[in-house]
Amino acid sequence: MKIVHILLLFLIALIWGLNFVVIKVGLDNFPPLLFSALRFFAAALPLCFFVRKPAISWSLLAGIGAMLCVVKFSLLFIAMKSGLSSGMASLLLQSQAIFTILLAGIFGERPSLWQIAGAAISLSGLAMIARSTGGELPATAMLLALGAAASWAIANLLMRKVPAAEMLAVIVWASATAPVPLLLLSFALEGWNRNVAALLSISFTGLAAIVYIAYAATIFGFAVWGSLIRRYGAGRVAPFSLLVPLAGMSASALLLGEEFGSQRIVAAALIVCGVAVGLRRQSFSLRRKFEKDSMRETPGHPPRGR
Fold first, then answer.
1. Which of 6, 31, 4 is nearest to 197 (CA)?
2. Could you report the per-residue pLDDT of 48-70, keeping only the tens digit for each?
3. Taking Cα atoms as reference points, which of 97, 211, 232, 225 lies closest to residue 167?
4. Cβ atoms 15, 216 nearer than 8 A
């Protein structure tokens, strides 16, 4: 992998980690569901006129939009508004890897021993965090964050049907499906008066938060991430996602003064290590498949069946 691409992956991890601090800023200016609607409206509106619809069915696109954009971010934003810190949010979302393995197993994909071991390690970290819940980490907020991770896992299963080359288009068009249902939910649950007051009193920091999470974290982040997956494969790129909670927790500590006790630091290490175990196995599997496919197409190694 070229140095410039490695640096880009570090930059994406930093952008995505810092995104959780920016979300906290945005939630100080907007109700959670309205903020989520504005984020996806900004991400989709200009680009959907220039990026063609991905070559997938409308039902699959709507499913991805519902789980990845509407459900995941609604639960995450409400959790953070309810007291979940940005650092813990960036960490708890990594449990999506555990939910992905569990759901894939339910739907017939047999997990490897490495994936099971990784899930067990990560679950031990989540159990440590659950035992440490208190006034500074409300149990309800933690459950909402885990619900967001579970909805992300469902979206992961749906996105397995999407070609890697279509990733940016899927993000743009899935974003376009989200604002209307989010706005309807916002006006129903958060109230017309509260939303109108937030829009009329919008501040520079609130507007900056929308721009950051829409264009830096969503469009730029996923565009670069998707292009590097196309170039190098998911097995080599995915492990860099483990830097996101490290960046998120560091940014929260430096910018928001969040403190992490020794128990939660150990728990964070267990969650990240557990995800790393599963990803490492995936990396080996994808690499072997790539090598086998390459050998079959190399002169002197004719494909089977020809």
1. 31
2. 888 888 888 999 999 999 998 99
3. 225
4. yes
For 251, half-sphere exposure in the C-beta direction (CA atoms, 13 angstrom radius) is: 26
Collect all residues with Cβ–Cβ distance below 8 Å to 234 and sequence separation of at least 6.
Answer: 164, 282, 286
Q: Which residue has 């900056």 as its token pair?
A: 208
Domain ranges of the chain: 3-297
Joined together, the tokens standing for residue 105 give: 């197993």
For the beta carbon of residue 118, count every other beta carbon within 10 angstroms. 25
Residue of 244, 198, 271 whose CA lies nearest to 9? 244
pLDDT tens sequence across 274-292 = 767 766 655 444 444 444 4
Residue 163's CB is within 10 A of a number of other CB atoms, namely: 12
Residue partners of 182: CB distance under 8 A and separation at least 6: 33, 34, 36, 37, 40, 69, 70, 74
Written in H, E and C, the secondary structure of the chain is CCHHHHHHHHHHHHHHHHHHHHHHHHHCCCCHHHHHHHHHHHHHCCHHHCCCCCCCCHHHHHHHHHHHHHHHHHHHHHHHHCCCCHHHHHHHHHHHHHHHHHHHHHCCCCCCHHHHHHHHHHHHHHHHHHHCCECCECHHHHHHHHHHHHHHHHHHHHHCCCCHHHHHHHHHHHHHCCHHHHHHHHHHHCCHHHHHHHHHCCCHHHHHHHHHHHHHHHHHHHHHHHHHHHHHCHHHHHHHHHHHHHHHHHHHHHHHCCCCCHHHHHHHHHHHHHHHHHHHHHHHHHHHHHHHHHHHHCCCCCCCCC
